């Protein structure tokens, strides 16, 4: 086996792990990392996106439009959840755990009762390609590109747009932002919707590759939380390098010793990073070391 | 003052309910109580909701036809949520509080091993209506599901003859997957094959890119997939999209999780499964069962092997109770010891083996086509669960209440 094949396979596995970590995490990075809401229903927003995507594709829509629909519906659900539940809990981060956990149970069981125990898959598009002895799925490359695209969009959104500036101001010093005439309630609402929509996008993107069941959100949530926890408060400067570091560890350990060690390696890496950088990677980058 | 009044009221309410409850029980002519502990939510629900429905169907039929020895059959059902601790909780509850005569419980082997000591401790009587890795030698248990000597001793040699002798196992990382993989290893070796590789996947893992590459690297002739739970089922879609294109063999797929219905063709192309029942089986008995099932539960997505196991288990229990003229476990086991507890099930004739209290089966080799249609290249009739008996487990003489494996067989007397 030549070096180029090996290098490509390592790169592909890294990209695959990176895409999964970043796409799982970016919605949570906004809701938990930025807004401080410990959203245990994150997996259910992902599930919502995946279900809507699959349903619209079954109804005849092309996959990209289906993913868009999944994203939009999740964002709308996010607006409603923010309005009814989260809005009252911004000063009580620990209570958000209980509230969102309850929401996640309701969403999982509600989906089971209303939609049934499984939903038919939509099939992965694009087929495969061959490099050396291995064949790869083209769609996984699409996922990697989507992860990079989402990170770029998030960076642009929060740094270059008026909404981004208002959102960051509102979250940093809410009363000052309000005094300057910012409608902080609206900004909170929109930011939460943005996080929920990103979760829905992750669900939509992964829907063709996975089993669609009410509990599917659970397979994302561990990766999402560890990425955000070690990433820290900044969406772009945290999630991107955290996803990169964890993807290297996970891909290397998995290829060396299998899936179990991949998971162990991931968690050990998280413990070390949290120990060394209590404010996360973005805290380190922004020199906020305590 | 108010406190004592409250307490009095509460006591009155309690005794009232108790009196009322016992009156109800008398009114219902002392029913035979059957506890049903199955996962109706959580990761395993897709494969197990049908079991509950099958038990309801059988109970309805039996009650319509006059019950068991003239006593109605009453179901006490709890949702175990794919959670092992729930099994332990509810097993204690059905045995101690609800005082059921028999319990039908469990999907995953982890859950069975979680509740089995409780059944033993409270001297209960449980049916495990699920295919599994074999080896449970316990007088408190009856197993109606298929075991490795029924599923692998048929499947693996067929696959090795058809596709070649290099085998790769991808298994769920818990007792079921580990012990089943041991069986595969053993049978592959006995047939002169070689293991190209093995990987154990933690439950709940849904991303398989690296595992897929490991398989391609090992270049096996076919892959034995012993993946469990809905998350792990994502493997098929991901392997298909990476164009792995290897035949697959399994004892759990299709027959449990109807992956061929859930995924878009052709992701399960060339999947071979040995199962004792799936709804595609084209015999009059099977069609009759399927029609009855669909009449009662029209929205059931699939009638799988565990549904059939559960359905026939209710009838087997009825037969044993009526022959023993008692719901006592000791009396029922005397009937089993006669060795002729058999019935014509939807799959064909089945009998309970007195030595192991496991069941003989008709084993169907189901092949999934490129369009996800099912064909049956081969059928083995009356395959006995012989391994435990041959290895030295004889429940008619001794009840060790233990689980054995090929590497840990029963102690020789």
Description:
The complex is a heterodimer of chains A (290) and B (413). Chain A is mostly helical and 290 residues long. Chain A is 75% helix and 3% strand. Chain A has a domain at 22-221. Chain A has helices spanning 3-34, 42-58, 63-84, 93-115, 138-160, 162-172, 174-179, 184-206, 218-231, 235-257, 259-276, 280-285, and strands at 128-131, 134-137. Chain A has a two-stranded antiparallel sheet. In chain A, a hairpin with a 2-residue loop joins β1 and β2 (134-137). The termini of chain A are far apart. By secondary structure, chain B is of the alpha/beta class. Chain B folds into 2 domains: 27-146 and 282-361 and 384-403, Response regulator (Rossmann fold, 3-Layer(aba) Sandwich), CATH 3.40.50; 149-275, 3-Layer(aba) Sandwich (Rossmann fold). Helices cover 42% and strands 20% of the residues of chain B. Chain B contains 13 helices and 16 strands. A 7-stranded mixed beta sheet of chain B has the order 8-7-9-10-11-14-15, sandwiched between helices. In chain B, strands 2-1-3-4-6 form a 5-stranded parallel beta sheet, with helices on both faces. A two-stranded antiparallel ribbon of chain B has the order 5-16. In chain B, α6 links the parallel β7 and β8. In chain B, α5 packs across α6 (175-190). The longest helix of chain B is centred in the first third of the chain and has 26 residues, at 2-27. Chain A binds chain B through residues 9, 12-13, 16-17, 20, 108-109, 112, 116-124, 126-128, 130, 133-140, 208-216, 218-219, 251, 254-255, 258-260, 262-263, and chain B through 41-43, 45-46, 49, 173, 199-202, 204-207, 209-211, 213-214, 216-217, 230-231, 233-234, 237-238, 240-244, 261-264, 267, 299, 301.
